[in-house]
What we know:
Residues 144-210 form the HTH luxR-type domain. With 224 residues, the chain is an alpha/beta fold. Helices cover 53% and strands 14% of the residues. Strands 2-1-3-4-5 form a five-stranded parallel β-sheet, sandwiched between helices. The chain starts with 5 loop residues before the first strand and ends with a helix.
Amino acid sequence: MNHPGTSILLVTDCNPQSQLFINYIHEQLEETVTALPPEAQAIPEGSTKNIVLLDTNHVTEEAIQQWHNLSLEDETVVLAALNLRDEDHAADLLAAYHLQGVFYRNDSLLLTCKGINRLIEGDLWMSRSLMARLINFYRQQQRNAYRPVCGLTHREMEIIGLLSSGASNTDIADKLFVSEHTVKSHLYNIFKKIKVHNRIQAMNWARQNLATSPAPLKKILKGA
Length: 224
């Protein structure tokens, strides 16, 4: 089942359990699997496809954002999330990041290997119900494209637009020539106006209301 030029990268905390997981994938798929610590971001030279498995038990939101940004720049990078709690968790991440596959905590090792193999072959790996949720998300987004956006000021629109592109508070402050304290104050007001509690929810709100579709939708709709 070996695919020349393909690398599988497991981004997780390196421990005996993750090593057992790596060994199992290698035995089942006959592919090379490399473990990377959560803070790392390294792509092997010469690979034509890099399946990056992000362990959400150990990888921070900031690190997922960095991998997301890399996947937009490097078409060899295919992102998937491991150890998701449930479909709601998967839907939140899929709406915010460029993920091609999702794996849940209660998935069997055999099912996980099947999903990884599908990613290697160029397919998406997610349930039909999850795809349906993404399509509904996209349709709602289209309906909202020209609606007023909750009374946000021009400056607040600028900030949430930058936030949805993955910018940190420091990045936003530098871009708009304001202090980080000012950015935090604006974000506090934005979160209240759009009724969200954290950055991922705000990013998803922006993508739904500011006409930026979730990454896998084009592929889903193409095959529909």
